[in-house]
Amino acid sequence: MGRKGRRFLNEKGVALVTVSLASVLISMLAALAFGKAFFEMRNVEREMARVRSFAAAEAGVQSAMAQMGVDAYTGFIDTEDININTFQNVNGIDLGSIQVSMEYPNDADWVIVTSTGSVGGDTRSVEGRVFLDSNLSKYLVYADTSNFNSGSNAQYGEPDYTDVYGDGEPDYPEFVPPDENDRAALYFTGDWTTSGSNVTLYGDAHTEGGINGNMSSYVHGDTYASEFALNAWGEVTNDGVSGGLNVGDGFDDDLDRNSDGTVDADDYPDYHDLTSSGSGDSHARETLVEIDHTFYANNNDVPTYAGASSQSRYLKFETSADGNSTKIVEYNNPDYDDIVATRTLPPTAIVYVKGDAYVKGNIKGRVTVVSSDDIFFMGDTNYTSNQKTVDPYHSAAYLAKDKLYFIPNDLEVSGILYAENSSGSSVSFNANYVYNSRRNRFDYDPYDKEYLRLYGNRIIKGSTNLGNYNDRIYGYDKNLKYYRPPGIPVKPDLRLSREVQSGD
User: Fold this and answer.
1) With 60 as the cut, is the pLDDT of residue 120 above it?
2) CA-wise closest residue to 433 among 457, 465, 392, 463
3) How does pLDDT run across 221-278, given as a tens digit for each residue?
4) Do 334 and 374 share a domain, yes or no?
5) Which of 85, 101, 132 is the C-terminal boundary of a domain?
6) Coil, helix or strand for 293?
7) Region 32-55: what's the mean pLDDT?
8) 299 and 401: one domain?
9) Do residues 355 and 463 share a domain?
10) Which pLDDT score, from 0 to 100, does residue 290 have?
11) How many domains is the chain built from?
């Protein structure tokens, strides 16, 4: 073979090697590209699984909210675990699972929800704090009436003289704490009028109308009125308060409404708006959830009290023999002469009376007394050892379909007091009667009684005539928001949700 032929074969060899090398390179590039694409696809799949598992965990929290909301109007909260072993997409393909557990510490005002979602090998956990809000236990007074009238010498809430620094001076200006959740609050669906002199509120006032007060009366807190109004320049055109009522909480928590660089009298400190939304410098309007008498009758811990016909019950509350709950001693008449029966309640109990309930004594445990008609307070009605305020082991509610009657000359009552005023008369909290034991009857007597002490919350449909008690103090019990008696309607509210790791 000649030189020319050998050169041709060499060139073919070089070409073959080049092609081979190019093929190897292309294969390597293809493999790298495929590997990268596969890696990216796996990342996408993992991210999709992460998003889906987190969404599943959040869906578990919402499922828990829905479960709690079913019977929330009764105050009973279903905290059973939720186990969804398999959930599917819209095409019916299995995606993953959801497990939800709930804690209800001391049956207080919050539930801790822990929800775990698992999708495609990825697992995420979310913790939610669900608060249980109720305006039956939130306000010192909630009055559903066009105008609530406060007579002379009424005191709402009590001054707080806390002295943390030990300098002999109260820490709080106006004697109210800076945290509004610790302050007493009044709520009126209409106007609030302090027609008498020396009416004092150590807390906040909320009116869907306005406030009309005189110069001898004082709100040591904030006011929220729907009549409050500003113009386009932030100038207050209506503060919602008339008549010279004094308002001031003493804290630097107010807005420079007119944007002049200082918070001064032109900004109306301590005066605020009450709106439907509660946005900005305002609070939201409230809607009262009515009690469900059918529920209470069906969940009565003393079935004989919900008999076929209405019957008055004369009840005295004492501590049970084992010291763990309330014993009801039933008598035959308002004189409490002869014992009819004795019944021991569980530590948490509902007592529904078909008829009028006459009550006095001390509650041990958490008890709700409901009447299909009226409730008469025949004597002091507090907690064991004459305790005035609630704790995790003591709380009470007295819910009347029609009216509450306050009979003795001197009286102390603790708990939630509710009068629905089903008869539609003007007065739902009535103190105009005394009991005449000599004649065994109640006599109308709208004249002077001595002192009245109510510790807790009053929910009033209509008006009251408690002014014939010369010395009246309505003490605020903030713990009623946390340790409610059974059967009080609540509204679940998710206020905190966060992703947590195992062991957090």
Assistant:
1) yes
2) 465
3) 999 999 999 998 888 999 999 999 999 988 888 888 888 888 888 889 999 999 998 8
4) yes
5) 132
6) helix
7) 69
8) yes
9) yes
10) 76
11) 3
Residue 334 domain-assigned? yes
Domain annotation covers residue 252: yes
The pLDDT value recorded for residue 412 is 97
**pLDDT score, position 161:** 92
Q: Which of 452, 451, 441, 444 is nearest to 335 (CA)?
A: 441
The confidence score (pLDDT) of residue 504 equals: 47
Pair 438, 317 in one domain? yes
Q: Which residues of 222-258 are buried (b: 16+ CB within 10 A; e: fewer)?
A: bbbbbbbebeeeeebeebbbeeebebbbebeebeebb
- Which residue, 141, 67, 128, is CA-closest to 480? 141
Please check whether residues 328 and 254 belong to one and the same domain. no
DSSP annotation string for 118-182? EETTEEEEEEEEEEEE-HHHH-SEEEESSEEE--TTEEES------TT-SSS-SSGGG--SSGGG
Assess whether 443 and 333 both reside in one domain. Answer: yes
Asked if residue 178 belongs to a domain, the reply is yes
Which pTM was predicted?
0.84
pLDDT at 1: 56
Q: Can you say how many angstroms the Cα of residue 210 is from the centroid of all Cα atoms in its chain?
A: 25
E strands of 216-287, at which residues? 218-219, 223-225, 229-230, 236-238, 241-242, 246-247, 271-275, 282-284
In percent, the amount of the chain with pLDDT more than 70 equals: 90
Distance CA 366, CA 383 (A): 10
Looking at the fold, whether 351 and 477 belong to one and the same domain comes out as yes
Query: Bigger pLDDT: 14 or 451?
Result: 451
Q: Is residue 209 part of a domain?
A: yes
131 pLDDT above the threshold of 90: no
Could you report how far apart the first and last alpha carbons of the chain are, in Å? 84
- Computed over every residue of the chain, the mean pLDDT equals 88
**What residues make up the domain containing 471?**
291-488
| Amino acid 473: pLDDT | 94
